[in-house]
Write a structure and sequence with these properties.
The chain is built from ten helices and 14 strands. Helix 1 packs across helix 8 and helix 9 crosses helix 10.
C-alpha cells in the first residue's frame, strides 16, 4: 500500500535546545552541581520529526532558528537523521531547562525564544509553498509554542494562507480555541487534557464531558486525540470513539511524550494503517517515551514492546 502523503513537513517557529540536568539536591545557598546532563534538539515540531526519523519515516523540518547557536542545533538534528531547511534570524535558539531531583520531582523552565520578523515569516512561507506547489498530498504539522512577538491570530492567518487542495494540517498547540479550529478545519489535533480544557473553555470534570467535546470537535477535525497522561489516550472521529489504556509504568520523563504520540499516529496513518490501529500505536509510543530520559526518542522495537499491553475500550 502506498503512502498517504508524499511529503510530511513539520513547521517550527520557536525551536529549543532541551537541556536535562540531574542534581543530587536542591541547595538555595550554594551552587548545585549536576551528576548528569543531556542535550537534545527540541520543540514540539522538531520532536515530531525526530520521532518520525527514529521510526523510519521521512519528514522535512522547516521554520526558523537563531543564528548564534544554530550550528549546535543542526548538528544534533544531523545525528538524529532529520532533514531540515531553516531560516536564520538574529539571536539564539532558546534553551529549555529541566532539573531532575533525587526524589524524581522535575522542575521545567521554558524560555520565551527570540522574536521572528515579518521578513523571516515570509521566507518560511515561501519555503513551504515551494514544497506544496506540485499538488501532491502533503501533511503540514504545526506544533509547539509561538515566538514572543507572534500572536495566535497571526499564526492562524499564517496557517490558513498555506492551505491548498491536497494539503492537510495537523495541529498540536495550546494557542487556539475551538472556534479557531473550526475555521482551520485541521486533519489532526492532539491536545493534552489541560490544553483541551483551555481549548473548549470548560473544566470537563468527567470522562463523558471530555468525550462530548471531542465529538463536537470531530465535526470539523478528521482525527481528534486527547492525551490523558497516565490514564491513556482518547481517539474520536466521525464514526468511532476509542479509549486506549496503556500499562502502568515507572515514569522517567514525560517531556516529549505528547509529541511522540502524535508522531506515531502520523506514522501509522502514513503507512496505510487504520486510524484506530494508528491510535493504539500512538498510545503505545507515548507510553514507551516516558520510559526514556529527557527527550530521547523511541525506537520501533520499544513501541512494539508496549503495543501488546495497551488495552482498548470501544465506546462507539
Amino acid at each position: 500500500m502506498g503512502k498517504l502523503f508524499e511529503r510530511i513537513i513539520t513547521v517550527s517557529l520557536n525551536p529549543a535546545l532541551d537541556v536535562t540536568l540531574w542534581i543530587p539536591s536542591m541547595d538555595f545557598s550554594e551552587p548545585n552541581k549536576t551528576t548528569a546532563e543531556k542535550l537534545y534538539a527540541g520543540g514540539k515540531s522538531i520532536n515530531i520529526s525526530r520521532v518520525l526519523a527514529a521510526l523510519g519515516e521521512d519528514s522535512l523540518s522547516l521554520g526558523v532558528i537563531g543564528e548564534d547557536n544554530s550550528r549546535m542545533f543542526t548538528s544534533l538534528l544531523d545525528a538524529d537523521r532529520v532533514r531540515y531547511d531553516f531560516v536564520s534570524v538574529p539571536g539564539s535558539i532558546r534553551e529549555n531547562i529541566t532539573l531532575v531531583m533525587p526524589d524524581k520531582r522535575v522542575l521545567k523552565v521554558n524560555r520565551a525564544g527570540c522574536p521572528v520578523s515579518r521578513e523571516a515569516m515570509d521566507a518560511v512561507k515561501k519555503r513551504i509553498l515551494d514544497e506544496v506547489r506540485d499538488g501532491a498530498p502533503v501533511l503540514l504539522v504545526f506544533a509547539g509554542s509561538l515566538p514572543p512577538n507572534i500572536t495566535p491570530e497571526a499564526y492562524k492567518a499564517f496557517i490558513m494562507s498555506l492551505q491548498r487542495e491536497n494539503v492537510r494540517v495537523a495541529i498540536d498547540t495550546s494557542v487556539f480555541k475551538s472556534e479557531d479550529l473550526e475555521e482551520l478545519r485541521p486533519f489532526i489535533i492532539k491536545p493534552n487534557l489541560p490544553e483541551f480544557r483551555q481549548m473548549c473553555g470548560s473544566n470537563l470534570p468527567t470522562e463523558q464531558s471530555i468525550i462530548k467535546f471531542a465529538q463536537r470537535m470531530s465535526e470539523f477535525v478528521d482525527h481528534v486525540m486527547v492525551s490523558l497522561g497516565s490514564k491513556g489516550l482518547l481517539y474520536v472521529d466521525k464514526t468511532r470513539i476509542l479509549r486506549m489504556m496503556p500499562p502502568q509504568v515507572t515514569v522517567r520523563s514525560t517531556i516529549g511524550a505528547g509529541d511522540t504520540t502524535l508522531a506515531a499516529f502520523i506514522y501509522g496513518l502514513q503507512n496505510g494503517g487504520d486510524p484506530g490501529e494508528a491510535a493504539v500505536y500512538a498510545a503505545a509510543a507515548g507510553t514507551a517515551s516516558v520510559l526514556l530520559d529527557g527527550t530521547a526518542v523511541v525506537t520501533a522495537s520499544q513501541v512494539a514492546a508496549v503495543r501488546s499491553e495497551v488495552q482498548v475500550r470501544v465506546i462507539r
